[in-house]
Every structure is written in C-alpha cells, then in structure tokens.
Design goal:
The chain is built from 5 helices and 4 strands. It is of the alpha/beta class and 135 residues long.
C-alpha cells in the first residue's frame, strides 16, 4: 500500500476514492490478499488466484509453493498462514468493494477450484455490493 500512497501523493489528478486492483495467478493471490486487508479499492478483480496455498499441494506446482513459502506446510506452517484463506473472515469488514473473480479449467498451474473458494467466500459475506465468478 506504500506504492499506492506514493502514487496518490505524486499524481494529485488520481482519484483515490475510485481505485481498482487486480491481478492474475500470483497477482490474483495478491488481489485476494488486498480484499482481505483493506477497503481502499472500489473494485477488485482476481483471476486464477491461489486462494489456499496449502490446497496447492493437490497440484504438481510444488516448486513454486516450496520456493515462495520457504518450505512446506509442515516445515514452515507460519508462512502458509499469511494467505487470503486465513483472513477470509475479514472480507465482511470491507464492504465497499465489488469483487470480480474468474478462473478456468484449462489453467494448468492453478486449479479453478482455488477461484471458486474465494468466490464462495465473497458470496457468503454479508455485503451490499456485488461479487461474481466466471470460468
């Protein structure tokens, strides 16, 4: 969020009340994390996100998980607790953001069920704004 603060300060023509955030794959993971940590964005789009890092152990993409998380869920469990799934209960605090979420069955790195998990959590929150999923 320091980068957002810097940008808003440097470019006063940017309307900080109408910002959106989005990302795909690891960027989707970060978009999910943003959705569970701040209400600064009016819209958040998460594409092919890794919502539950531990559940990624059902894939063959273990090198990324073990590298990025500096170990496995059983050798470094604290590292795996920092994902959006851990903070899913915080989504109810940030009710002003619309959430768009998409994933695909032909994504051979991130199972689309990861996006479904985030979408289900978004839909289940007590929220007056929209949340959609497409695949």
């Amino acid at each position: 969020m320091n980068g957002v603060d810097y940008t808003l300060k440097k470019y006063p023509f940017i309307d900080g009340t109408r910002m959106a955030a989005g990302g795909g794959s690891y960027g989707g993971y970060m978009a999910d994390w943003i959705a569970t940590h701040t209400g600064r964005f009016k819209a958040i789009v998460s594409h092919a996100s890794v919502y539950d890092k531990v559940a990624m152990y059902a894939t063959e993409e273990l090198w990324f998980e073990e590298h990025d998380m500096q170990g496995t869920p059983w050798t470094n469990p604290e590292s795996y607790r920092n994902g959006a799934v851990t903070y899913a209960g915080e989504l109810g605090k940030f009710q002003d953001a619309d959430a768009g979420n998409c994933g695909g069955e032909r994504d051979y790195r991130v199972p689309y069920t990861q996006s479904l998990e985030f979408s289900a959590r978004c839909s289940g929150r007590k929220c007056r704004r929209s949340c959609g999923f497409s695949r």
